[in-house]
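Budget justification aside, the reviewers requested a transparent look at the raw inputs and outputs of the sequence design task funded under Objective 1. We therefore reproduce one unedited record. The lines immediately below are the structure tokens for a 689-residue chain.
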């Protein structure tokens, strides 16, 4: 990327929906007063009610006078107070985030000591325990000593000196790994230095999210006691051995398949040379011989795998990844590899069960559920019905509060700042699109986060034969929370690529892949008006080098165009799934979201049967996903059967009408002919003597 393009992407990405988190703010000294126990004890965290009205939603604590007031999407009492008092900095009690009105930005508490002290006090008051994320080196430019200090990753329970040995041990373990997961974790959780971004602001496992460890019996244990082993996956049945004929391999992926048929040691995807297949519960294995079924499953499970694998390095920097796993990655020797599901846990990733996916796939499944419910009963075969935006909004609201209860969630972890702002908007329940647009406009039309594209892969597989419907459905789901045209365009491009692949687009050469991308780009630009953003959008579409994408640039890691480019990297790759995803997530940043889109496009390209099957079996909640995916496949089959039946009936109806019409025409011609002969006979008789 050119320096100008890089600068432009940072400028736009810095405000890509989650709002930039400044690591230092000159207004803190004047506008932040310490919070003592007396202030904290007077806060009702459960009801969180505004002092001026009865609003109990997203309220803010003024950090200068400690008044609790509602935000601009309620009755705006904080804004009124700010205008009258000049107090600039407040803390949001829902997620304990910090906003400076003078800077027009969120502030990153971990690098601002005064804010971290406030954060710790509020966290203890709300959750009854110390915060899990420790402070980082100050970035105050006036503090030379702190400014020059380096930030290091230190594992929980380790001293600074023991950190390097842990990293070395982890690297050694990774080097000896194969595609099979290790039996135990290589290290205790570690802290990270990356700011909260498009949403990856997680609660502790006690406040939300799935149990840290799930056994086959469903009992939960403390994650610190032991790591989840490969066999401890939560599946009710063991991995089945199913021998598939060669025809089950997608025909249009011969080049990619052949390049991965004898991959390096670490990069070996388990199906490349094995007949073992991780079953999809409820699906007849023979159906995977249907190319579209194989690719549909490859898309959705590729999304989940990329998401789950990306969690390993989410919110780390490249430097921190290199400390944990080694400076370089060599697929041939396994040096620098990242084990799945037993990667080195950070404080952030330790909140999930080993092998679990995150909010990216959760929200993809919410869209899948929306399709299933919208197109049900008498509407099952409807062709002009649009997926219900209000229904999706309702599901998203429920998920944000409860997570997925049947999987043991206590709340939805990972809700993005942009999405969260849209959800608390007073219009959201009645008009999700209107609420999202209002939030976007209030951001000066700069909020372009990746929360829409991370969940969009399912919109590419539903009704994939009808591109107009795919685009319509994709826009409808994206605009529920993300109104920026860059968000909509990135979703449309990814979805149309997936649909075209399921329709049999040729992918046997790099040239054919580029031709497909160019074709879908043209369709995207005809559907979404990008205006001043079009050149930058095109530049991200053309990026093929990971370094060019700058995925760990802290001010723009949640930018939708970076996530889209990560997905295209997967589509273009000729290496195995494992090697491709490992290269991507070693770039760090918002790695789970980048991995989700990359995994989805890669999975569409090669199909379910060419995903790493041991990795699939390591996802503890795959069986839950299986049942929903099977329902979607059945819905797609029913809709296609109905469409074919209607087409046949129409042809038959047209044929009968033509036949009857022909009979009438034949009869008419016959009558005319008889009349002509009679007239001719009469004329002849007239002239005879």
């Amino acid at each position: 990327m050119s320096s100008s393009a890089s600068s432009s992407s940072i400028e736009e990405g810095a405000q890509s929906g989650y709002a930039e988190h400044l690591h230092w703010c000159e207004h803190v000294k004047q506008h932040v007063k310490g919070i003592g126990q007396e202030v904290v004890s007077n806060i009702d965290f459960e009801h969180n009610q505004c002092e001026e009205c009865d609003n109990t939603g997203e309220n803010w604590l003024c950090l200068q006078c400690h008044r609790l007031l509602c935000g601009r999407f309620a009755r705006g009492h904080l804004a009124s107070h700010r205008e009258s008092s000049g107090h600039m900095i407040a803390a949001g009690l829902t997620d304990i985030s910090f906003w400076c009105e003078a800077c027009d930005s969120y502030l990153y508490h971990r690098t601002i000591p005064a804010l971290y002290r406030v954060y710790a006090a509020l966290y203890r008051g709300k959750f009854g325990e110390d915060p899990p994320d420790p402070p980082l080196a100050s970035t105050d430019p006036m503090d030379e000593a702190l400014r020059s200090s380096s930030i290091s990753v230190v594992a929980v329970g380790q001293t600074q000196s023991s950190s390097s040995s842990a990293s070395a041990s982890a690297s050694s373990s990774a080097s000896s790994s194969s595609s099979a997961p290790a039996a135990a974790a290589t290290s205790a959780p570690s802290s990270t230095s990356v700011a909260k971004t498009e949403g990856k602001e997680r609660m502790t496992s006690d406040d939300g999210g799935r149990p840290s460890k799930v056994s086959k019996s469903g009992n939960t244990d403390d994650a610190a006691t032991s790591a989840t082993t490969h066999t401890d996956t939560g599946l009710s049945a063991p991995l089945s051995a199913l021998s598939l004929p060669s025809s089950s391999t997608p025909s249009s992926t011969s080049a990619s398949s052949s390049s991965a048929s004898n991959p390096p040691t670490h990069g070996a995807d388990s199906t490349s040379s094995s007949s073992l297949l991780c079953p999809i519960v409820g699906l007849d294995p023979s159906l995977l011989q249907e190319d579209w079924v194989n690719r549909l499953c490859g898309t959705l499970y590729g999304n989940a795998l990329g998401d789950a694998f990306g969690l390993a390095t989410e919110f780390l920097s490249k430097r921190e990844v290199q400390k944990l796993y080694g400076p370089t990655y060599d697929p041939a020797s396994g040096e620098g590899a990242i084990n799945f599901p037993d990667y080195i846990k950070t404080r952030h990733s330790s909140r999930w069960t080993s092998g679990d996916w995150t909010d990216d796939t959760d929200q993809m499944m919410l869209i899948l559920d929306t399709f299933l419910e919208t197109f049900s009963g008498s509407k099952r075969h409807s062709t002009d019905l649009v997926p219900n935006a209000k229904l999706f909004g309702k599901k998203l609201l429920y998920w944000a509060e409860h997570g997925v209860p049947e999987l043991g969630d206590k709340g939805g972890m990972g809700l993005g700042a942009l999405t969260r702002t849209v959800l608390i908007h007073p219009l959201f329940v009645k008009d999700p699109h209107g609420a999202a647009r209002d939030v976007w406009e209030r951001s000066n039309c700069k909020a372009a986060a990746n929360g829409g594209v991370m969940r969009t892969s399912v919109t590419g597989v539903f009704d994939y034969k009808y591109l107009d419907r795919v685009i319509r459905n994709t826009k409808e789901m994206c605009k529920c929370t993300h109104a920026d045209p860059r968000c909509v365009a990135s979703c449309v491009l990814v979805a149309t690529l997936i649909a075209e692949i399921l329709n049999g687009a040729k992918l046997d050469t790099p040239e054919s892949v580029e031709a497909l991308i160019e074709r879908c780009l043209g369709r995207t630009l005809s559907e979404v008006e990008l205006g001043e953003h079009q050149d930058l959008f095109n530049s991200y579409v053309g990026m093929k080098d990971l370094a060019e994408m700058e995925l760990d640039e802290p001010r723009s890691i949640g930018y939708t165009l970076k996530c889209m480019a990560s997905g295209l990297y997967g589509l273009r790759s000729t290496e195995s799934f494992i090697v491709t995803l490992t290269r991507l997530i070693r770039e760090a940043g918002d790695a789970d979201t980048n991995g989700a889109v990359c995994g989805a496009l890669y999975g569409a390209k090669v199909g379910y049967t060419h995903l790493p099957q041991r990795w699939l079996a390591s996802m503890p909640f795959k069986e839950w996903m299986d049942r929903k995916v099977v329902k979607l496949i059945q819905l797609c089959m029913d809709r296609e059967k109905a469409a074919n039946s209607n087409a046949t009936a129409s042809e038959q109806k047209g044929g009968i009408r033509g036949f009857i019409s022909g009979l009438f025409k034949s009869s008419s011609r016959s009558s005319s002919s008889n009349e002509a002969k009679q007239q001719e006979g009469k004329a002849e008789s007239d002239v005879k003597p």
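The chain has a mean pLDDT of 77. The longest helix spans residues 622-687. Computational costs for records of this kind are itemized in the attached budget.
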